Amino acid sequence: MIDLHYWPTPNGWKISIMLEECGLPYRMVPVNIGRGEQFTPEFIALINPHHKMPAIVDHAPAAGRAPLELSESGAILIYLADKAKKFLPEKLKYQTLQWLMFQMGGVGPMFGQAHHFMRAKKDEVPYGSERYGNEAKRLYGVMDRRLGEEKYFAGAEYTIADMAIYPWVARFEWHRVDLGAFPNVKRWFDELGARPAVQKGMAVPA
Ligand SMILES: N[C@@H](CCC(=O)N[C@@H](CS)C(=O)NCC(=O)O)C(=O)O
Fold first, then answer.
1. Does any ligand 1 atom lie closer than 6 A to the CB of residue 73?
2. Residues 133, 113 contacting (CB under 8 angstroms)
3. Closest residue by Cα to residue 74 from 106, 111, 32, 42
4. Would you give the distance in Å from CA 74 to the centre of its chain?
5. Which of 4, 6, 11, 32 has most ligand 1 atoms within 8 Å of CB, for mutation?
6. Which atom of ligand 1 is found nearest the CA of 11?
7. From the first residue on, what is the mean pLDDT of each consecutive set of 10 residues in the chain (206 residues)?
8. pTM recorded for the entire structure
9. What is the C-alpha separation between 195 and 110, in angstroms, rounded?
């Protein structure tokens, strides 16, 4: 059994989607980040010293191995792909990792900053909204070109890179992007949104 320390946000959804896609049994442990539950001494000592969700505890990682605590959603996705032997195909391994890193270093942090300035700060700092809004649009341009060349980010197969990017694109209204202006992203987004495991993962409640 895997414990998923979770709150329903794009970083949390990446892992709930992957667990659903793999059919791995898991138990959701809520971490209400609005109430600061990521700062409890237990969470910091036992789950993630960086006090962020998502994190997992795999109580049965492999025969004879001690339970594994893991944080950082990209690392968790790679771990689960290795465990389930799914969604990180050998022939697309490095392309998958490239687009996963693109999400971890680009899409996640930049869209997150756009949400902060546009929503939490309600455009009080116009420079912030403009800078991260423009960066979000630039990243959509990169994604649209890639998805004009390939069906999925890594190539012909659906991988953990798609699962990492999807929940961030699902917040397109938050970073004020018109999906219609990026037709290849929209085609991919609609296709993934029709997958039952994606729908289940996105619906895991708090
Ligand atoms: N790089 C981390 C980022 C995780 C992250 O930013 N989580 C946010 C919610 S989406 C969080 O737990 N924030 C609480 C805090 O920063 O105190 C990952 O990909 O797992």
1. yes
2. no
3. 106
4. 8
5. 11
6. 10
7. 97 98 97 97 94 96 89 98 98 98 98 97 96 98 98 98 99 98 98 98 94
8. 0.97
9. 26
